[in-house]
Amino acid sequence: MSKSIPPAATEAAEPVQPSPPSSSRRLRRAGGIGVMVVALSGLLPGTAALAAPATAAETRHAASGWSGGKSAGWDAGREGGRDAAREGGRDAARDAGRDAGHYQGYGRGGEGRGHGESRGHGDGRGHGDGHGHGDGHGDGHGHGDGQGKDRDRNVDYVALGDSYASGYGGGPVLDACGRTAEGYPTLLDALPRVELDSFQACAGATALTTEPAPPAGPVDLPEQITAAVSADLLNRQTDLVTVTISGNDVQFGSVVAACAGAVLPQTCAPAIAAAQAYAETAVVPQLQTSFTAIREAAPGAELVVAGYPYLFDGTVPGALSIEAQNLFNAGTDALNAVVAAQVGEDGTFVDVTEVFTGHGIGSADPWILPIGAPFALHPNAAGYREGYLAAITEAVDLLNQNEGDDDCRGHGRG
Fold first, then answer.
1. Domain match, 141 and 159 both
2. Mapping DSSP to helix (H, G, I), strand (E, B) and coil, where does residue 140 land?
3. Which of 22, 163, 254, 290 is catalytic?
4. 353 and 248 within one domain
């Protein structure tokens, strides 16, 4: 299993131009929440904007579904037959069934028969859809029958979203979209069974297609979906899709700036209300469209949408007063609720606010980078690992199946 980070495709559809809650659309496209605060309030001196997104195209897996299925069938059949003749039915049945199931074949599979030496004869069949059968009769007059169900093949995974999905702030930036090795997609990819097929998430991305289009700006969610589908990496074989999106649509950074000060400014509550109204009127329809597009492209995948954490501890005054911090955190709850309502019963919304509680800016153990630091207002490595990764793996049953948890049955006579 390759664990290198797949590059993102950058082909983008013709953008449309919505009306976000402030006029700083161009600043938002510079690359994430923290950068906007630089321009709007001067709170983050020296923070650099991201460059244009990467230009390398996505590539498909070397092994196609058909070849995987065909190989599973032929290999299981050949080995089942040969081993049946040589070793007896019990081991042949168990191995043929299990091995066929272990292949991550998609397609109609294949069939093979093998004849052993002397008087032995074996017959094994394997199917690329994850089922294998083998039976054999050998010199020892043994007979066995086994079945293997494909429960431990790879989880084919596609990651979409903004800087919180790209891992921005988790460590050294690996490309122009702000991806890092500590982002939750790469952490999920490090799990034994997970294969990150397409890492499209890009810092600065929005749920809506907004200007400037790539390469001047990041690839937004609709274009990320289009790129993954066009590369045939978001498809019927996809098992898991994660998304974190909409913070840039409502311009988190500008809201932070509107709430900054030793006392609660009069601009704070109106900025939060405007962001919420924009989410409900403009972002919701686009989320519905994008989530539908994901489900149509990958009908067998589990859609997992991870929300945003509380940025502030809410107990210690800092760049924002305690009152402003708690008001902002309440706005985070409201945005998360709007996004969660669009996921639907067949998807999973992961609320990370609880796991981040006690780890906001101003806490003794912050998982959010503070105002004034590089990558400000984004999770640090601990936030992605102990926060996002922990919350997602706990919420998604697909990620909790143990490798080798087969449903194998066999019996034999010596």
1. no
2. coil
3. 163
4. yes
3-state secondary structure of 78: helix
- Rounded Cα distance between 62 and 54, Å, is 22
The DSSP bridge pattern shows strands 146-149 and 131-137 to be: antiparallel
Does 74 lie in the same domain as 51? no
Instruction: List strands edge to edge, sheet with 348-350.
Output: 194-199, 155-161, 240-244, 302-306, 348-350
Whole-angstrom CA distances from 134 to 8, 12, 261 are 42, 49, 72
Q: Which of 121, 149, 177 is the last residue of a domain?
A: 149
Stretch (H or E) spanning 32? none
Residue 378 is a catalytic residue? yes
Which domain, by its residues, includes 118? Answer: 65-149
Question: Could you tell me if 206 and 280 lie in one domain?
Answer: yes
Q: With a cut of 50, say whether residue 10 has pLDDT above it.
A: no
* Strand order through the sheet with 121-127: 110-115, 121-127, 131-137, 146-149
The verdict on residue 9 lying in a domain is no
CATH code where residue 181 lies: 3.40.50.1110
| Inter-axis angle of helices 252-259 and 33-41, nearest 10 | 40
74 in the same domain as 48: no
**Could you tell me if 301 and 352 lie in one domain?**
yes
Model-level pTM greater than 0.85? no
- The answer as to whether 82 is a domain residue is yes
Q: 222 and 180, same structural domain? A: yes
Listed in order, strand segments (DSSP E) in 346-408 are: 348-350
The structural domain count of the chain equals 2
Query: Which range has the worst mean pLDDT, 24-28, 105-109, 139-143, 324-328?
Result: 105-109
Share of the chain above pLDDT 70, in %: 60
The residue type of 258 is A
Active-site residue, 163 included? yes
Q: What are phi and psi of 14, to 5 degrees?
A: -65, 120
Q: Do 80 and 95 belong together in one domain?
A: yes
Q: At what angle do helices 284-297 and 221-230 cross, to 10 degrees?
A: 10
The contacts found for 314-319 with CB under 8 angstroms, 24 or more apart, are: 314/360, 314/362, 315/362, 315/363, 316/362, 316/363, 317/262, 317/362, 318/361, 318/362, 318/370, 318/371, 319/43, 319/260, 319/370, 319/371, 319/372
Q: Would you tell me how many other CB atoms lie within 10 Å of the CB of residue 23?
A: 9
CA 39, CA 222: separation in Å to the nearest integer? 27
The angle, 0 to 180 degrees and rounded to 10, between the axes of the packed helices 89-102 and 65-87 is: 170
